[in-house]
Amino acid sequence: MPGNTFGHSFRITTWGESHGKALGVVVDGVPAGLPLEPQMIQKELDRRRPGQSQVSTPRSEADSVEILSGIFEGKTTGTPISMMVWNKDARSSSYDNIKDLARPGHADYPYMKKYGIRDYRGGGRSSARETIGRVAAGAIAKEILARFGIEIVAHVIALGTVSARPMPLDAIRENLEKTPVRCADLEAAEKMLKEVEAAREEHDSIGGVVEIIATGVPAGIGEPVFDKLDADIAKAMMSIGAVKAVEIGAGYEASRMKGSQMNDPFVMEDAMVATRTNNAGGILGGLSTGMPIICRTTVKPTPSISQPQQTVDMKEMKETEINIKGRHDPTIPPRMVPVAEAMMALVIVDHMIRSGHIHPDSLLK
Amino acid sequence: MPGNTFGHSFRITTWGESHGKALGVVVDGVPAGLPLEPQMIQKELDRRRPGQSQVSTPRSEADSVEILSGIFEGKTTGTPISMMVWNKDARSSSYDNIKDLARPGHADYPYMKKYGIRDYRGGGRSSARETIGRVAAGAIAKEILARFGIEIVAHVIALGTVSARPMPLDAIRENLEKTPVRCADLEAAEKMLKEVEAAREEHDSIGGVVEIIATGVPAGIGEPVFDKLDADIAKAMMSIGAVKAVEIGAGYEASRMKGSQMNDPFVMEDAMVATRTNNAGGILGGLSTGMPIICRTTVKPTPSISQPQQTVDMKEMKETEINIKGRHDPTIPPRMVPVAEAMMALVIVDHMIRSGHIHPDSLLK
Amino acid sequence: MPGNTFGHSFRITTWGESHGKALGVVVDGVPAGLPLEPQMIQKELDRRRPGQSQVSTPRSEADSVEILSGIFEGKTTGTPISMMVWNKDARSSSYDNIKDLARPGHADYPYMKKYGIRDYRGGGRSSARETIGRVAAGAIAKEILARFGIEIVAHVIALGTVSARPMPLDAIRENLEKTPVRCADLEAAEKMLKEVEAAREEHDSIGGVVEIIATGVPAGIGEPVFDKLDADIAKAMMSIGAVKAVEIGAGYEASRMKGSQMNDPFVMEDAMVATRTNNAGGILGGLSTGMPIICRTTVKPTPSISQPQQTVDMKEMKETEINIKGRHDPTIPPRMVPVAEAMMALVIVDHMIRSGHIHPDSLLK
Amino acid sequence: MPGNTFGHSFRITTWGESHGKALGVVVDGVPAGLPLEPQMIQKELDRRRPGQSQVSTPRSEADSVEILSGIFEGKTTGTPISMMVWNKDARSSSYDNIKDLARPGHADYPYMKKYGIRDYRGGGRSSARETIGRVAAGAIAKEILARFGIEIVAHVIALGTVSARPMPLDAIRENLEKTPVRCADLEAAEKMLKEVEAAREEHDSIGGVVEIIATGVPAGIGEPVFDKLDADIAKAMMSIGAVKAVEIGAGYEASRMKGSQMNDPFVMEDAMVATRTNNAGGILGGLSTGMPIICRTTVKPTPSISQPQQTVDMKEMKETEINIKGRHDPTIPPRMVPVAEAMMALVIVDHMIRSGHIHPDSLLK
Question: Cofactor stoichiometry and binding (chains A, B, C, D) (predicted)?
């Protein structure tokens, strides 16, 4: 059973390779009656596209979206929405000389073992360009969620050795797009930019942490005992290339807390049940509590670096050295922000439909 | 779409509540021809059963497994295997006085919001007793994997404020069951035991970290781009109650590493491709690399603690205080070890079948 | 990927073999708040149990159901409902002498090819006893549907060479259980009984046709373009052993009709859209029209007959003769009536939830 | 949960509307290493395209396929294959005056009830143009199956009142494409053509029967007890618009046969197990027997006819008359032949992978 489909009630299937003709996504399960313009998709794709700033790869792609189906007179009809982007600035020749070499930190070797053949140009299917389909589909999910008062915001909270101070949600919203590193703590952002620059000069790369926050999610979504909301979020995030850890709420810190500290006391707030703290990150027993959902993902440093590395020639089956040319991002988290938002939106809209909060057929009902 | 089923090619469905008549699991997709005796299941259930040591709840259950189908003349037949355990020591009355109160850190409140009704006795379906089905199914998965040279071992590497030193796999195997905390570093285990004891005396609880290692997994299993091996592991682990974070390989540390440090150099070893380090934790691009798969999960402190806590009465919709009596584990990680092993085994056997490494119908082929 | 699960939003997994310890089903996706007593399940099982009349096998089983989970204080809780029946009158020895012979018309040979091993006693998993789980689950589905004004009735419309006259729904309801052949045309029923008796005396068996009618289904359920309502009904019915054809509405006759005859004119009835005729059988484009859903299934004659038959010895790989002893139904349709009703109920309740007509979590909402 | 995806191990998702920009399909689960040229797809699309003969609609579409992903250096890579066809001759204006009228025999009314909005041009998503994606995907499935010695042939065996004589497989292969009605009995074909012509002159339409034969399928594919091979074939066929009945083997005739007639005696043939007759249609207990798989589908007459029909205005909610202009096929079965072959191929390749007969990852292994 192949794995290019995500979601159950709101289901996306992505396709396409880094240097193929095009990349795209089919989104099935979008309820009818949602006004949808290409611009709503494009604005999210613009946030992830290459060449957008000095912290991203210089590959120049407009990544202009075409919507091919599922819309009639400006509204969704409940039928599948097919969206695609043509590849334009695909310089494949730079990959010819490394086609048999396993790039360290990349999927070349296991792909070869699995399929016996691979499109080596730019990583083929394992390229981060695959996330175009996720972001396009996520843009639709966000539009739907917005109608139900749900907002999703991601931001960079650590890059290299720099950590941001905790910021209130308003400041995150306001500062998010002010700097190319997408860190709401502008002082930290300044330092992060320097660290990115230093890494680039050293022909190296750095990692970081992206935090995703979802507000307005009603209590009770998620499906015990396996399709728990946090389980599906963990899968969604870990399915993004380069993510090596996922935390919910107190996350990693929970291991050193006592029950009396970790437990969030229940309180009444405006005649509604809430919790005083939110160590749970908005999820208990796999179900949303009504509090903000908080997730953090650790992103490894970009594996493509412009320095010689030890590796093997998969054809000759012998050790050798590799020098990757190509065009790389010196760090991934800033461009991963819209991807992480998309994945969170996809999980939440899927579960909102699954648990009856959003009508599966039509928003007009 | 409900969520009590896990896996695709090797698929389990668990059922049952903490204080219901019984709990069980149906395992579909077990290839024919596997010799299977109840004792193979029972030995794993014994590792998770309550009352096994001073660090676990005193609830006394033999959790004796019955296999009801799918076996003929001592071998699996390819048909579903139904297994169950009767509940015996279910003292439901202790829950009567808190039936309308939302226990902090527990799923009571969101369950009530979702279903409008709940079996409040011992957490009902959201009880850790649900993992009986997982462990029973995982025991079958482990038996199958063992025939393909795959071994899965989990152990506690942190409990409360105590962290274990890194240990070689041999020592982990040898020491794992020597102490009730299931920590291979016996010195650390000693300290952990004391910390558990202290927590119990303070009517409090502590968290910890469980590491799961899978060796012998061939390169190339996992399904791009959503059903990646690490994505499915993350989901599997996060679906276990009390888990708040999942890391693969370098995990959380990857955020502070440089690409040149994080990338594992490929080398030839015994005419096979390997990596010199294993920061990837055995997974690149969502596919296994052939190196050991390393996963760490952070477990929160047991939410049931015997001290007064602030909460709300869900019926009266007003704030109040709760005193949980019942019988609780002072810490979860030691008993979570067999559950985490089971979930890892389930993910790997599922992917081994999905990618053609294990025949879906029969081991006799 | 194994195949013992049916449905998406209302999902059943059956398990068990003809001569194993027990048979059962886990039903996942039952909304919370449904009052459910064992008697509601038992009454349907009693309609399918062996030994109920002269037209059924003399194997004597009470098939007494136990509900093991998912119910609290007489109501469903939204968690999986596990139900089982113990096998009691299992006389396995009669199968010893034919364990290597492929019974004609039975699944012995392909099971052996698929799994390399099989429980040969009474057909093992391929026995009609497997439908116990379907009927138990279907009983819950029917209870839910009844609350939404949906009724499902099946009846025998042909047995051997006897065909029943068309009968109005009221007469079908009234006469259905009056004779052991479950034919509403009592005159035809008389003749059918004779034909069954004749077949038994000749050590032979006869086939027939079961019609299933669902009334009260609202317009618009079904999921284009693959999970159409008629597609899922066809699968559900064809998954019942012995069914060789499935028709919807005019069915087989449609091939000889003209468009002007086949098309059902739309009319207004009580301010609602209806059709004057119902050649569509209540389904257009895979979606319900609001008219009664009409399905007919052709059932082959029981393959187990007490006369010598030509076959092969699968172990020796040579031709031989087989004499099946055991205890057989001389004809299947009468006992298939509750099974067909169950499958129709399962498909409809699944699609009612999928399309938002029934709340997935709770009937209390 | 939406329904535009079919299959598990070989999974297709179709998208697009009759008068939208384009239609297409994403095929996930194609093993790596299959040589694939657009011409292999195009030749099947040419068999289903409109305007190909006097028995099909005059809408003129080249339906020229573009393959956008999943191929590298002429071979499949194991990644999703995205294929599309642009709509060119879409004359939407002819539908403006009937946009609120429910065309009898069409899905307009239930679509409106389900979604509250619909693309009324040419049936939108419920148009037969949707089958372009099925045929394109089926072409890949057929290529794979051919490598395993499996051949799939469909042909028209009845059209209107004309039935073809039974023909041997060789004659079917040879004569299939000799006449536009795709009937292998050329005498019957002659009469069928006249009946089509007469129907067109009467502004009416006729139905028919398509038989699909699959040879070379090994014994033992199919998944008990719900995903039986015949159950999945029934679903696949019934999911094609206009199909009202599906039969396997003796099918409808089985109801009047005795067990002693229906049962196919097992024999040894060339040291292999076979059956002397094939009333089972190649399937027992939901598993293939190794004999040819035989399926027949009844196709209703085209619902679009150029004569006034009684209907309702869905906006005004009152009765009225409809006159459908557009361009219609006078009969569907001839153009359904490649669609039925595609669906059979999709089911079989899916089950071949599921049961381990075809490697899920790669044909190179």
Answer: Reduced FMN (FMNH(2)).
pLDDT in tens, B283-340: 999 999 999 999 999 999 999 999 999 999 999 999 999 998 767 889 999 999 999 9
Dihedral sign for Cα atoms in the order B191, B197, B202, B204: positive
Give domain A7-354's CATH architecture.
Answer: 4-Layer Sandwich (3.60)
Model pLDDT for residues C257-278, shown as the tens digit of each residue? 999 999 999 999 999 999 999 9
Task: Say which residues have a Cβ less than 8 Å from residue B11's Cβ, sequence separation at least 6.
Answer: B5, B27, B28, B29, B350, C1, C2, C5
Counting residues of chain D whose pLDDT is more than 70, the rounded percentage is 99
Q: Superfamily assignment of B5-354 in CATH?
A: Chorismate synthase AroC (3.60.150.10)
Residue D122 has pLDDT above 70, yes or no: yes
Nearest CA among C38, C27, C92 for reference residue C64: C38
User: Is there a binding annotation on residue C165?
Assistant: no
Domain ranges of chain D: 5-354
What confidence tier does C326 reach under pLDDT thresholds 50, 70, 90? Answer: low
* Interatomic CA distance for residues D274 and D266, integer angstroms: 6
Q: Which amino acid is at D34?
A: L
Residue B302 marked ligand-binding: yes
Decide if the complex's ipTM is over 0.85: yes
Reference B108, options A220, D93, A69, D125; nearest CA is A220
Nearest CA to B2 among C304, A80, A22, C70?
C70
> How many other β-carbons are positioned within 10 Å of the β-carbon of residue B209?
22
Of A133-142, B53-62, B353-362, C38-47, which range is least confident?
Answer: B53-62
Q: Strands, DSSP E only, in C182-278? A: 208-215, 243-248, 266-269, 272-275
**Residue from C287, C263, C259, C286 nearest C275 by CA:** C263
Instruction: Pick the closest to residue A312 from B221, D72, B271 (CA basis).
Output: B271
CA torsion, ordered B97, B99, B102, B104, to nearest 10 deg? 60
| pLDDT band at B59; cut points 50, 70, 90 | confident
* Residue B213: closest CA among B168, B270, B258: B168
Which residues of A are part of a known binding site?
48, 125-127, 285, 300-304, 327
Q: Between B and D, how many residue pairs show a Cβ–Cβ distance under 8 A?
A: 21
pLDDT for residue A90 is more than 80: no
DSSP B199: H
The residue of D5, D10, D13, D361 whose CB has the most chain B CBs within 10 angstroms, and thus the best one to mutate to test that interface, is D361
pLDDT > 70 fraction of chain B, expressed in percent and rounded: 99
How far is CA B228 from its chain centroid? 19
A149 Cβ partners below 8 Å, 6+ apart?
Answer: A216
Distances (CA, A) of C277 to C152, C266, D207: 20, 9, 18
